[in-house]
Specification:
alpha/beta, Rossmann fold, 2 domains, 6-stranded parallel sheet, 9 helices
């Protein structure tokens, strides 16, 4: 099978650290073209990440007819613009989360790509890892009873003023960067959408971004998720789900290492056990699944409607932080 040639917009540290290595073993994706406004930086980056073509602008890469699809790891405020430009060029898009800055933009991006018959997927890689597939199965069969609560903690330490995560004008802050995972994972396990949300946040006095945020998502029927996310706290991540007949906890839910087993602890009336899933690189699985859908012309493994729904919940959290009240999660 011929590999799809990948074009990447920007010299992304995330790509270099987590995606470049696994794609070397992909049977479906060939890292082909890199674009950067800094040509010298692009040349160094391309050599390290094995790109054969370099472009000095994003538009030039999109004009390359040999590029089969593009990956957008640009700052959040640029997502909508370059999703549209990729669609204009007929390039399928896998875009980093959050897909856009709000649900209205996400709807616009989805509609624009649909009009151009261009596939679009938000890059929530964690959903492709076997540990999450197993956790979803356990909840689905009712092993822990009716799911009632999902709790997520996700934090890291980053006080670099030059980092895009600490800039409000690029869509920085805790909710956009990691709160989106807390919302997405709860929606994934519940298999439904929250009806309302409440949130408190603390803004950094210098950056003005939300550095610490805690929230509750009400899924109706006595079901809720809670979370705390922070960009200036000791790095930690954990997801726990509790039902009427047991609980499960995912040890490293999001930034999972590719070379060790995933670990899901399940507790029920029968006892407690540790499930270890196979070693897997979630980024390789993500890009291969996306490419397979492009080749076979099937629905994206994570449909863009999911990205819109996630964005709607984030919108409600931001609004609640302003009003201090429960806010309705809008449907689109």
């Amino acid at each position: 099978m011929k590999k799809l040639r990948l074009g990447v917009l920007g010299c992304s540290g995330h790509y270099a650290l987590r995606i470049a290595a696994p794609l070397k073993s992909s049977k479906m994706v060939e890292p082909y073209a890199l674009a950067s406004r800094d040509k010298a930086k692009a040349e160094e980056f391309a050599k390290a990440s094995h790109f054969s073509k370099i472009y000095g602008s994003y538009e030039a890469l999109l004009a390359d007819t040999d590029v089969d699809f593009v990956y957008i790891p640009l700052p959040n405020h640029l997502h909508l613009e370059y999703i549209k430009k990729a669609a204009d060029a007929g390039k399928p898009v896998i875009c980093e989360k959050p897909l856009c800055l709000n649900a209205t933009e996400a709807v616009e991006a989805a509609a624009y790509c649909q009009k151009s018959s261009v596939p679009l997927m938000e890059a929530f890689m964690y959903r492709f890892h076997p540990q999450w597939i197993r956790a979803k199965e356990i909840v689905g069969v009712g092993e822990i009873g009716g799911l009632m609560s999902v709790n997520c903690h996700f934090s890291y330490m980053n006080k670099d003023a030059n980092n895009i995560r600490n800039k409000t004008d690029t869509g920085g802050g805790a909710i956009y960067d990691i709160g989106c995972y807390a919302v997405s994972s709860a929606r994934f396990l519940f298999g439904s959408e929250p009806v309302r949300a409440i949130c408190t946040l603390v803004r950094d006095q210098v950056f003005k971004t939300d550095a610490l945020a805690s929230g509750i998502l009400d899924f109706g029927g006595d079901r809720a998720s809670t979370f705390t996310v922070c960009t200036q706290m000791y790095p930690c991540q954990r997801v726990t789900a509790i039902g009427t007949g047991g609980s499960l906890s995912i040890e490293i839910p999001f930034n999972m290492y590719p070379d060790i087993p995933g670990k899901v602890t399940v507790s029920t009336g029968v006892g407690q056990r540790l499930i270890e899933t196979e070693n897997a690189d979630q980024y390789l699985l993500e890009f291969d699944a996306f490419s397979e859908s492009v080749i076979q012309k099937t629905e994206m493994p994570t449909p863009v409607s999911d990205a819109i729904a996630n964005m709607a919940a984030l919108d409600a959290l931001f609004k609640s932080a302003e009003t201090g009240k429960w806010e309705t999660v809008q449907r689109y």
